Automatic annotation (TrEMBL):
<dbReference type="InterPro" id="IPR050515">
    <property type="entry name" value="Beta-lactam/transpept"/>
</dbReference>
<comment type="similarity">
    <text>Belongs to the transpeptidase family.</text>
</comment>
<dbReference type="GO" id="GO:0008658">
    <property type="term" value="F:penicillin binding"/>
</dbReference>
<dbReference type="InterPro" id="IPR005311">
    <property type="entry name" value="PBP_dimer"/>
</dbReference>
<dbReference type="Pfam" id="PF03793">
    <property type="entry name" value="PASTA"/>
</dbReference>
<keyword id="KW-0573">Peptidoglycan synthesis</keyword>
<dbReference type="InterPro" id="IPR001460">
    <property type="entry name" value="PCN-bd_Tpept"/>
</dbReference>
<dbReference type="Pfam" id="PF00905">
    <property type="entry name" value="Transpeptidase"/>
</dbReference>
<keyword id="KW-0131">Cell cycle</keyword>
<protein>
    <submittedName>
        <fullName>Cell division protein FtsI/penicillin-binding protein 2</fullName>
    </submittedName>
</protein>
<feature type="transmembrane region" description="Helical">
    <location>
        <begin position="20"/>
        <end position="45"/>
    </location>
</feature>
<dbReference type="InterPro" id="IPR012338">
    <property type="entry name" value="Beta-lactam/transpept-like"/>
</dbReference>
<dbReference type="InterPro" id="IPR005543">
    <property type="entry name" value="PASTA_dom"/>
</dbReference>
<dbReference type="GO" id="GO:0005886">
    <property type="term" value="C:plasma membrane"/>
</dbReference>
<dbReference type="InterPro" id="IPR036138">
    <property type="entry name" value="PBP_dimer_sf"/>
</dbReference>
<dbReference type="GO" id="GO:0009252">
    <property type="term" value="P:peptidoglycan biosynthetic process"/>
</dbReference>
<dbReference type="GO" id="GO:0071555">
    <property type="term" value="P:cell wall organization"/>
</dbReference>
Length: 719
């Protein structure tokens, strides 16, 4: 047993130990708090943790950024009518998850599927049965469902009608879209813009995919802006915080050189020929002979820009991105080169039919030939042998120099995406001779138009152009102007006039092969062409349908106002019409209308409206277009049910004539129409017109391309 002194020593040691532990804990806590305090001080002053700025992070946490969308610029025709413009469409979806409720407890999901299906079927292209099936999935319980193509591209008017039914669970997503009111209208030159989502920002913007829409995408697109503001956790804007905003810059507007009246007629005539012989491809361009301005341009296959129908087979813009052997239309430039270089005497004779060069034979299209004939007659007969002789007389060096002087084998620098430069086979004498009649050389349509301008414009070659100006959409000021641009003088004025005289022989001499291109009241200079089509393996396709037919024409011949060039590839000729006759069905009415429109002194021509009821839609449109009327076709049917004005009515040229087909009625774009025209439309279709104001239509309650039926109400404001 310990004595009292030992117990006192133990107590003393225990007190010392507790004191040491206490001091240690105090020091530990002191050091901890000192560390934390200094750390907090550093954070408070520097506002950084692990290289993260807390100030920025907090600001981002409570800052909401709203993208301010820029409006894409519009594209207009030569008269200021819209060809492409911005619009908004909506996509519809239905929420089925029954857990979705508002703050007031009301359902945010579809409650009555039968009623919902009935309303959707009334306003969307979907049956009630199909809509109900979509709203009632069997095997799963999705959060929401969509309605395929029937639930997309919904107009604002249709959206409002559906919203008026107050259907819980039905919501819409707005989408920027592009409106092409004319449908098939130089579609490959104008191009299309579709919505694309930026992967970095997540915003959707319209982006040009071809033609002018792609070439001038930056000009048209503009720049999106943004608006930043700070909000608390309850969504209220924080007081005293400055709002940052960068306004959107809308895209600029582009005015083209396309004349809508001529373009519409050209599309109609192209459709007519296409329906008759179903060619693999067609191309037609009308150009101002003095300036290079493209007045109308069309191709087949093409697509409807409003619906994108047919776009899958029509991505190539054949103006600039398609090369072909021009065939006998190349003889215009062979003759020009021979005359200009002093190697042509038209009264000299040669033996036609066959011509041997280095053991290789150049044949005429008529293998038996026409005996010994003059070079003048040989050109009118489109003799290959005549051209081969001229090439031999010039020599390959001179001939190739002129090929380049006419702008072949290099880009016209049109600005269109994917423009090609062409190519040539020119190593051997037979290849050099072949190019004189358009074989072994490949060109683009723009190159042909440019080269033809030298002949039509007395030796001065003009660059083809299709944009007249770019306008700032904010202040309506002109940013850039386009106009005639001289790109060369490959031949003299005397040569050009002589060549046009020989081109007239093609049309008017009894032995000429272009008589189908005669136009009453106008003198025509033309050259036809027939070229074999490549088989893709270094040779040529065989068979009756293996040719590319073409014509180059200038009217009036003595002082050309317009140049037109048309190609038709591999038509399925039936024997009832020749290729020349078919091309003339496009050439003659289009160039005649252009000449009539360009004559400012010409008095207004009035014509009797013919009867086209019960005729095919294609024939009816062609007949009306040839009379000079502006045809508005209602519906997609193949025959005409009604027309307005009626048969025998006297109507001025360029006035609207309405043709109602037997099915598929859809609303046309009536913005800019007179009240009289709108009333005729309503009378013909049975629409009930409710109008306000006077003048010209500036709104329509039934959207463009929307299906219509007798009894529907059309509300229009006129200003």
């Amino acid at each position: 047993m310990k004595d009292s002194s030992d117990r006192s020593a133990d107590k003393l040691n225990a007190r010392k130990s507790r004191k040491i532990v206490g001091i240690s804990l105090f020091l530990a806590f002191f050091l901890l708090f000192a560390f934390l305090g200094s750390r907090l001080l550093v954070i408070a002053v520097g506002k950084n943790v692990k290289n993260v700025n807390l100030n920025d992070r907090a600001e981002k946490l409570y800052t909401q950024t709203q993208t301010l969308k820029a409006k894409r610029g519009s594209i207009y025709d030569a008269n200021g009518n819209p060809i492409a413009e911005d619009t908004s469409t909506y996509s519809l979806y239905a929420v089925l998850d029954k857990r979705q409720k508002g703050l007031n407890g009301k359902p945010l999901y579809v409650v009555n599927k039968e009623k919902t299906a009935k309303v959707l079927a009334k306003y969307l292209p979907i049956t009630e049965k199909r809509a109900l099936k979509t709203l009632s999935p069997k095997d799963k319980q999705p959060f929401q469902v969509e309605f395929g193509s029937a639930g997309t591209n919904i107009s604002l008017l249709t959206k409002k009608k559906i919203e008026a039914a107050k259907l819980p669970g039905i919501d819409f997503v707005q989408k920027q879209a592009r409106l092409y009111p004319n449908g098939v209208f130089s579609s490959n030159l104008i191009g299309v813009a579709v919505s694309e989502t930026n992967k970095k920002t997540g915003t959707a913007n319209l982006v040009g995919q071809m033609g002018i829409e792609k070439a001038f995408n930056k000009t048209l697109a503009g720049q999106n802006g943004f608006k930043n503001a700070q909000y608390d956790v309850y969504g209220y804007k924080l007081p005293g915080k400055r709002q940052k905003e960068k306004p959107a810059k809308n895209g600029h507007n582009i005015y083209t050189t396309i004349d809508s009246r001529i373009q519409t007629l050209l599309e109609s005539e192209m459709n007519s020929v296409q329906s008759q012989v179903h060619p693999a491809g067609m191309n037609a361009v009308l150009m101002d002979a003095k300036t290079g301005k493209i007045v109308a341009a069309s191709q087949r296959p093409t697509f409807n820009a409003a619906t994108l129908k047919g776009i899958g087979s029509a991505w190539t813009n054949t103006l600039s991105s398609d090369m072909y052997e021009p065939g006998s239309t190349m003889k215009v430039f062979t003759l020009s080169s021979a005359i200009n270089s002093g190697h042509y005497n038209g009264t000299d004779t040669y033996e036609s039919g066959r011509y041997s060069i280095d053991g290789k034979i150049v044949p005429d299209w008529n293998p038996g030939g026409w005996g010994y004939i003059t070079y003048n007659k040989g050109f009118a007969l489109s003799s290959n042998v005549a051209m081969a002789h001229l090439e031999q007389q010039m020599g390959p060096t001179t001939w190739k120099k002129y090929i380049k002087r006419f702008g072949f084998l290099k880009s016209t620098n049109s600005g269109l995406p994917g423009e090609l430069t062409g190519r040539i086979q020119f190593n051997y004498p037979i290849e050099q001779a072949d190019t004189s009649f358009g074989q072994g050389i490949e060109v683009t349509t723009l190159q042909m138009m440019q080269a033809l301008s030298a002949v039509s414009n007395n030796g001065t070659m003009m660059k083809p152009y299709f944009i007249s100006k770019i306008i700032n959409s904010a202040n309506n000021k002109t940013i850039k102007k386009y106009g005639k641009k001289v790109v060369g003088h490959p031949i003299s004025a005397a040569t050009a006039k002589a060549v046009r005289k020989h081109m007239q022989d093609v049309v008017y001499k009894p032995y000429g092969i272009g008589a189908d291109y005669k136009i009453k009241g106008y003198r025509v200079a033309a050259k036809t062409g027939t070229a074999q089509v490549s088989n893709g393996m270094g040779g040529y396709a065989s068979g009756d349908d293996s040719y590319l037919y073409s014509v180059a024409g200038m009217v009036p011949a003595n002082n050309p106002r317009y140049v037109m060039f048309i190609t038709m590839k591999q038509p399925k000729l039936t024997g009832t019409k020749t290729a020349t006759q078919l091309l003339a069905e496009i050439f003659k009415p289009v160039i005649t209308r252009a000449l009539q429109n360009s004559n400012a002194k010409q008095a207004t021509v009035k014509r009797q409206v013919p009867s086209v009821v019960y005729q095919t839609t294609t024939d009816a449109k062609r007949i009306m277009n040839e009379k000079g009327f502006d045809v508005v076709t209602i519906g997609s049917g193949d025959s005409i049910l009604k027309q307005s004005p009626g048969v025998g009515t006297t109507q001025a040229e360029q006035k609207r004539v309405f043709l109602l087909t037997n099915k598929g009625w859809k609303m046309p774009r009536i913005i800019g129409w007179s009240k009289d025209d709108v009333e005729k439309l309503c009378s013909l279709t049975g629409l009930k017109l409710e109008s306000t104001g006077s003048g010209y239509a500036d709104s329509q309650s039934i959207n463009f391309e929307k299906s219509i039926d007798t009894g529907d109400v059309l509300k229009v404001n006129f200003e």
